[in-house]
Design a protein that fits this description.
With 577 residues, the protein is α/β, with parallel strands linked by helices. It is 27% helix and 26% strand. The chain contains twelve helices and 25 strands. Helix 7 links the parallel strand 20 and strand 21.
């Protein structure tokens, strides 16, 4: 079962008509062109419509299979965002398709206004397969296909080519003040004629906490330089900041709490397509002393906070993947590079000078208490050395780490994000929570599942929220919010790692199926937390046991036997009574 999604995708013939990407080196599709034509001969020439599961990726080149509904039947908490797919497919060309939604009303006269409903035509992007995970890649060596992932809410209409499928993403955000009850309305699809599809949503008398106030600790690393490159504007220009606002506001509304701030150039050794420049300018003066220019750091951090991300500032990194700290040397009038090893006297002097100055600057801005020196997957001895240095400068310095679990340094890590192969001991989690420390987990290119690749099952992103709740952790980290490939709207494949590993949203900003399902999982986490507290308070032991029993099934090894979609279908009803 672990390769179900990959095999499913590899069956789909690639349509080279619609994207300017060379696919000449890809493997031959497993379904012949004649077989595809035969399948479409069974399809009505008229426009076919139906609501379908949001956990399935439907191929553009094949008529969809499954059971489809003429009405979207759903349950939602007050304050919740729910989504579905509406599929359109036809055996002939349809020149223009537009959509219109109505208000949702109940028999008592209550209304959910149509402004709370959003629709987006799904667009297809090239993906590949997991195969060997973390490795350098040549596109010719990996099975590739088109997959529906981009949710384009910025276009008003589409055309449908003969013998093709067009998914539409439909979302409803239920206002928190909505009265419980059943609300009905329609979504009208206008083509050569009008088609009215029903919406029937039962609003449950429970209120979901807003994402900005949620306990779920979502951390998706931001990449500002990628936004400048894709939009073709100068880095750090007014135009750049104006464009970043849409991306960071969308991320804040998803519940992001942490600002990704680089205090050195290329903290990850330029593993991405775009540069990752420092927000702090390091200057070695002619007399040998050091000066640090924080003007860009201050402007950027204040800007991101204004967008709604303000709980923490994670500064990367004293322990980069390549020890090569660049600075401007005034005496030589050129860039210099410091390469001395971590733990040496020269390294400690180099960083102590900066950290003493940085500490004073942060305290002057009233940011010190929310700033963390962050490290990502670094060797134990290097981390111990950095911890000693930080605590010698100011015992109140906070430290964030994403990597393996190390009991030796756990007490020193204020925000600890462990790799999926590790677990926090229960006693450690309880103590960390009592101390106000954050305990999360992450996936990357190592795990075939659960993950957020463009070929991953959308249900895996929801599964992540349930796993987090089951393990009693605080949240989830995914390393790249928007570290885009060269042409992210066309091709999600990269020279390293499985397709989609480097980003979750698209230039626009446009959301994705993966991003929306990740947020669904975050909502489920909050529902689980709320219900467990409610059941304990009310003495509803049977319901608490039933929920805990379901959560115990969420083990990563279980995905080798059961799909995430199967597991979600079995358990979702427990939180939507």
């Amino acid at each position: 079962m672990k390769y179900l999604v990959i095999i499913y995708l590899s069956l789909f013939c690639l349509d080279v008509r619609s994207q300017d990407v060379s696919l000449s080196l890809q493997k031959e599709p497993q379904i012949s062109a004649q077989a595809i034509i035969n399948k479409w001969t069974e399809v009505s020439k008229e426009l076919n419509l139906g609501f379908a599961s949001s956990d399935v990726r439907y191929a553009r080149e094949l008529p969809p299979k499954g059971t489809f509904q003429s009405t979207w039947e759903a349950k939602a908490w007050k304050g919740e965002k729910i989504s579905t797919q509406l599929l359109l497919w036809a055996g002939r060309d349809i020149a223009r398709i537009t959509l219109e939604v109505s208000d949702l009303k109940n028999i008592e006269g209550g209304t959910i206004r149509k402004e709370n409903i959003s629709t987006g035509f799904l667009k297809y992007v090239i993906t590949d397969e997991f195969k060997d995970g973390c490795s350098k890649r040549q596109k010719k060596d990996y099975d590739s296909s088109y997959v529906a992932d981009i949710i384009d809410t910025k276009i008003a209409s589409v055309s449908i080519a003969k013998n093709s499928t067009q998914p539409i993403w439909v979302s409803l955000r239920v206002p928190a003040n909505t009265k419980p009850g059943s609300y009905k309305g329609t979504i009208t699809v206008r083509g050569d004629k009008n088609y009215n599809m029903g919406i029937n949503v039962k609003v449950i008398d429970k209120t979901l906490i807003p994402p900005g106030k949620s306990q779920y600790d979502l951390d998706l690393w931001q990449h500002p330089a990628a936004i400048a490159r894709v939009h073709n504007v100068p880095l750090w220009s007014d135009e750049h900041f104006s464009l970043m606002k849409g991306y960071y506001t969308m991320l804040a509304e998803a519940g992001q709490k942490t600002i990704t701030a680089s205090i050195v150039n290329e903290p990850w050794g330029h593993q991405t397509y775009d540069d990752y420049p420092s927000l702090v300018k390091w200057i070695k003066k002619k007399d040998g002393t050091w000066k640090y220019d924080y003007r860009l750091f201050d402007k950027y951090v204040a800007f991101v906070m204004k967008c709604g991300i303000s709980e923490r500032i994670n500064c990367y990194s004293m322990v980069p993947w390549k020890i090569a700290f660049t600075y401007f040397d005034e005496a030589l009038n050129k860039e210099g590079v410091f390469t001395d090893a971590i733990g040496t006297n020269t390294y400690n002097t180099f960083w102590k000078t900066m950290l003493v100055d940085f500490t004073g600057h942060l305290k002057g801005k009233n940011w010190f208490d929310k700033t963390y020196i962050a490290m990502d997957e670094r060797p134990m001895e290097a981390m111990k050395s950095v911890i000693r240095l930080l605590k010698d400068i100011d015992k109140n310095w906070k430290i964030a780490l994403a990597g393996d679990y190390h009991a030796e340094i756990e007490r020193d890590i204020d925000n600890y994000c462990i790799a999926s192969k590790w677990s926090f001991p229960d006693s450690v989690l309880q103590r960390r929570r009592s101390e106000g420390k954050i305990s999360t987990w992450y996936t990357c290119c190592i795990e075939p599942y659960p993950n957020g690749f463009t070929f991953s099952s959308p249900a895996e992103s929801v599964w992540i929220g349930w796993y987090t709740a089951g393990k009693n952790m605080d949240g989830y980290l995914r390393w790249a919010y928007n570290s885009w490939t060269e042409k992210p709207l066309l091709d999600s494949r990269f020279t390293s790692w499985p397709a989609g590993d480097t980003y979750l949203v698209y230039p626009g900003p446009l959301s994705s199926v993966r991003f929306e399902k990740l947020l669904e999982g975050a909502q489920d986490f909050e529902k689980i937390r709320y219900l467990k507290s409610l059941y304990k308070k009310n003495g509803q032991t049977d319901k608490l046991i039933q929920l805990d029993r379901a959560l115990k099934k969420f083990e990563i090894r279980s995905l080798a036997e059961f799909t995430a979609q199967d597991m979600m279908e079995e358990t979702k009803s427990l939180i939507n009574h």
